């Protein structure tokens, strides 16, 4: 865990921007779905105004702009985290005994470095960042917008989320003990 924090501390600003942009995109995606309901209701009842259409259009355009801006920190962090893990492993490998190096072989050693760097990047970037910037905010924002419509339904959905989490945890723990 210490290695993960060292790598993330190197790129604090970029990491913060990446998470903030992701949360903003999750909010706008959820809000656009909620606002689409206003557009459809206004159209159905014949009360649709230009203001509602303009706000909905601004939400959609903002989402597109943020998705475009998100590509820079996405690629920079993904490649940077991978490179930082490779450099950490290379520093560690430089301290191994030469006889151990000879038994492993250069190809095997390089493959282990690549696999380790790829795994570290996947853990941080593909798992933790996705949870923090996409999945958790999407669930929270969805529950907030559902609560604005009907609190009872939101409570049932929240209970469903909790049950799915518990079942997934139990099943994954059971799978780990079997293997």
TrEMBL record:
It is found in: Cell membrane. It comes from the Bacteria. GO terms for molecular function: ABC-type transporter activity; ATP binding. This is ABC transmembrane type-1 domain-containing protein. GO terms for cellular component: plasma membrane. Residues 19-179 form the ABC transmembrane type-1 domain. The lineage of its organism: Bacteria, Bacillati, Bacillota, Clostridia, Eubacteriales. The keyword Membrane applies. It comes from Clostridium manihotivorum. It is a multi-pass membrane protein. The chain crosses the membrane at residues 17-36, 48-69, 139-167. InterPro entries: ABC1_TM_dom, ABC1_TM_sf. Keywords: Membrane, Transmembrane, Transmembrane helix.
């Amino acid at each position: 865990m210490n290695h993960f924090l060292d790598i993330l501390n190197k790129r604090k600003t970029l990491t913060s921007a990446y998470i903030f942009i992701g949360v903003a995109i999750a909010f706008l995606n959820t809000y656009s779905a909620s606002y689409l309901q206003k557009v459809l209701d206004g159209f159905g009842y014949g009360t649709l105004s230009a203001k509602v259409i303009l706000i909905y259009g601004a939400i959609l355009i903002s989402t597109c702009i943020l998705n475009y801006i998100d590509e820079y920190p996405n690629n920079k962090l993904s490649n940077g985290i991978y490179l930082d893990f490779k450099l950490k492993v290379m520093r560690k490998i430089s301290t191994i005994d030469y006889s151990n190096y000879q038994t492993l072989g250069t190809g095997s050693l390089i493959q282990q470095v690549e696999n380790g760097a790829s795994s570290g990047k996947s853990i941080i970037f593909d798992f933790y960042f996705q949870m923090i910037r996409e999945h958790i905010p999407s669930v929270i924002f969805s529950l907030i917008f559902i609560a604005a419509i009907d609190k009872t339904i939101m409570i049932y959905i929240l209970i469903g989320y909790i049950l799915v989490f518990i079942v997934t945890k139990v099943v994954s723990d059971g799978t780990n003990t079997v293997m």
